[in-house]
């Protein structure tokens, strides 16, 4: 709930370490108004970022721009260890001082990096030390923490060409194509049968593969995509709620309001007020 309203929970940055058991299940797609760096230490999983599929192996860095819909799907046969580093644009600006936007656009242009073993070791030491500094803070930590985040970002920027190209099988390519189709046609009366036909699959097989690969059902994915666009329009335009519902593919304003409240715990108008107060 309130996935995109987390900016009041992260002032400048946050570092997090987690170990995901084989039976861990991430419930939902989410997005937030700050940047995220996901560093996979061990195990295997997949990332769905902005309607594209990426398979991850240990040593991969996933670079997620602010306000980008994403979700991780974990392999039921492996335990995953990972670091997450979150930071705001204002915090990054305090580190680089100039050309921050260009630096971040360059770094976050392609979602997955895979560094050499030596660079992975360097990055692991930096993340380990950063995590220790944030969990056991002393009088020096406030000076040390930004320095380590700056070193991590500089390491990734300097090795930005180590992109990890993806090799998807035919079913994954079809599901990715369908997700991208949804992202450009969600304003229309899109149906499962229509999209299944678009990728030359039977509706039953398509529905099964979509859930298997993305971790969510077709209808939920479509609704998520529409609600994400609604949050953008509520934040950045003065359109009324009915106009936004129609633009996002909701024919029923009441259904739009109910779906929005279920997702975010707020009505569309409450969300708009909350977001404008945060900007």
TrEMBL record:
- Please provide the record's keywords in A-Z order: DNA-binding, Transcription, Transcription regulation
> Which Pfam families is this protein grouped with?
AraC_binding, HTH_18
Q: Residues in domain HTH araC/xylS-type? A: 176-274
InterPro entries noted in UniProt: AraC-bd, Homeodomain-like_sf, HTH-like, HTH_AraC, HTH_AraC-typ_CS, RmlC-like_jellyroll, Tscrpt_reg_AraC-type_HTH
PROSITE patterns the record matches: HTH_ARAC_FAMILY_1, HTH_ARAC_FAMILY_2
GO terms of molecular function: DNA-binding transcription factor activity; sequence-specific DNA binding
Cross-referenced PANTHER family, in alphabetical order? ARAC-FAMILY TRANSCRIPTIONAL REGULATOR (PTHR43280), HTH-TYPE TRANSCRIPTIONAL ACTIVATOR RHAS (PTHR43280:SF28)
Name used for this protein in its record: AraC family transcriptional regulator
Provenance organism: Roseburia inulinivorans
